[in-house]
Structure formats: structure tokens, C-alpha cells
Sequence to fold (334 residues):
Amino acid sequence: MSLCVAVLGATGAVGRTMLRVLEERSFPVGELRLLASERSTGVRIEYRGQAHPVAVPDEDAFRGVHLVLVASGNDLSERWTPVALRMGARVVDNSSAFRMHDDVPLVVPEVNGERLSARPRLVANPNCCAVPLAMALAPLRGAGLTRVVVATYQSISGGGAEALARFERELDSPTAARGADDPPPLAFNVIPMIDRLEANGYTHEEMKIARETRKILDLPELPITVTSVRVPVRVGHSHAVNVTAERALTPDEARDLWRASAGIRVLDDPEHGRLPMPVDVAGTDDVVVGRVRRDLSHPGGLDFWVVADNLRKGAATNAVQIAEQLTRAEVASR
Ligand SMILES: NC(=O)c1ccc[n+]([C@@H]2O[C@H](COP(=O)([O-])OP(=O)(O)OC[C@H]3O[C@@H](n4cnc5c(N)ncnc54)[C@H](OP(=O)(O)O)[C@@H]3O)[C@@H](O)[C@H]2O)c1
Fold:
């Protein structure tokens, strides 16, 4: 079986990674339609040795498409996802447009992949921090999680292709003059605010991570507090996590639970400098956990550090895994 696949936002940071992951995993792509803005008119992207033209989306672009992978912002998803669904396609959406809709599953296959067995037409792919966080927390649920405190260290690519390009320019000319209204520099800086502020003082990014993690874990009441920080790293988001649980987990128990979990790798040998770090994790699909230790300030507390590639497991790989599972379910139902 081969499918007609459209990638909306194919020229962006996630879209280009999506194409690489589809190719690496030999996803059954028969026909490929690449969609982006007018800015990308004339751009061609290589896929399996063939240069594919990029087009601007219109209704015709979704005709006959089996699967749409959305790798663009919310406005585009809100505009084109309903069109694609109406035309009979399935949609896996990387934007946050539909993630918190009650009737839209928000899926990390290793955690709640069973949500795909009903073969939903629209599946939301979670935020790039919610994916690794949910994966690291899911194996600990049996201890009765009572609170989660997270600080994220999010790479520049999390802000998309334009942010990455600005970062490179700033690295090249660190002393370039900055206007009063310019955004803070990304290079040589740490910015404790990602996305807009909400009325409660948290940023939208922080609230998304908390809400989405609760939805994926199916723990709607779990207290989660997040501080999201942009750091001058190209790819790979890191997370300092503190959990408290009804039953205290020892570091050894937690490591064993993670080792038994698909998609998680434990790398916890700080004495020999073997630690999860974005430079090593970027380009891979693992969620890597380390620096596991008892929280000395709380009897049921545990501290650990989690790293994942935000463009791969945090976005493209997770979306392609969802598409693979949907495709398998489709074939099985025939
Ligand atoms: N970056 C991450 O780590 C990450 C992780 C998880 C989820 N996400 C989500 O994934 C989505 C894509 O993120 P990204 O980082 O890849 O962003 P990006 O690099 O800015 O890419 C955006 C894509 O959307 C296209 N686009 C923008 N305006 C358009 C228009 N009017 N018509 C058609 N196409 C248009 C762009 O095309 P042009 O190149 O032609 O402008 C580009 O292909 C976002 O919803 C983001 O929140 C991102």
C-alpha cells in the first residue's frame, strides 16, 4: 500500500525534519505534495533522490490526499485541517490548534498509543516539551504522582527556521547594534520567557506544557508548574524535573522503570561525565534521562534531567509514528 501524503509547512524546521524521518523510516509514500507559503515559490526539496516542488496550499492540493502532516502554525492548521478532513484525508497536526479539543486525541505512541485504535481522522501531536516530559513521567505514575515541577531549557530551533537563521546571524556578528524595540538576542543569552504571557503570569508555552502533559498522561488533576527558558543551543530541549509521589521512588527504582519503557534511554553516570546533553541527543529519537537523585528536601521527592531532540521525537518522529500506527490500523481494518 502506498499513500498520497501532503506536508503543510514542508520548508520549515519541523517540515524538513518530517521529510527526513518519512524517508528514514520508509513510510509508504506514493505521491508527495509539499506545501508552504508564497515565500517558498520555486523551492524544490529532495525526497528519495527526487526534487519535489513546493506549492502554495489551495483546495486542490488536498484532493486525493490520504494523509496530511501539518508542520505549520495554528492559523494555517485552522484554515486547512477542516478542508483536508472534509476531503477524506487523515491529519496529524503539529500545531497547537486542536490539541486541547476533547474530541481530538493528543498522542505520544509510547504513552497513550491506544487512542489510535479507533482510527481517529485528526490526531494532535503534542508540544515538543510535553512529549519527553510525558514519556519520562508515564512510567512513574504507579507511585501516585502528586506534583511535578519543571524547568525547560529549550533550543533555538524550537522557535522555527527564522529563529535559527537569526541565531546564526547573531553568532556571526555578536556586537551588532540592537534597537530598543528589537527582541532580546538569542546568541550568548538565556531568555526566561517563551511565547506570550497569559493573565496568570505564566507564558502560553508553560501553560501548554502543563495542560498537554496532563492530557497525555490522563491525569487531569496532576499539579504541574513549568518555567520555560530559551537557551543558545541549536537543537535539543532539556528539562530539569522534580516529582513528588505518594510512595517515594528510589533512583534505582525509577531507572529500572525507565529502562523497561519503550523510547527511553537512561544515561546516568555523572562521575564519568556520561550525562544526557543536547549535543549528543540531537539527531536521535530517544528520550534520555539522567542525573537521577533523591530530592533531599522532600521525603517523596525525586529529581532528574530529561533531554530529547525537539524536531524529531518532540515533533516529526512522534508525528510519523502516529501516522504509521494509523496506517497499520487502516490496513488491519480492511
Ligand atoms: N520547532 C519545533 O521544535 C516544534 C516542535 C513541536 C511542534 N512545533 C510546531 O510545529 C509547527 C511548525 O513549526 P516550525 O518550527 O517548523 O516553524 P517554521 O520553521 O517557522 O515553519 C513554518 C512553516 O509554515 C509555512 N508557512 C508559514 N506561513 C504560511 C502560509 N501563509 N501559507 C503556507 N505555508 C506557510 C512556512 O513556509 P515558508 O518557509 O514558505 O515561510 C514553513 O514551511 C508549529 O505549529 C510549531 O508550534 C514546532
Notes: The first helix runs from residue 13 to 24. The first strand starts at residue 3 and ends at 8.
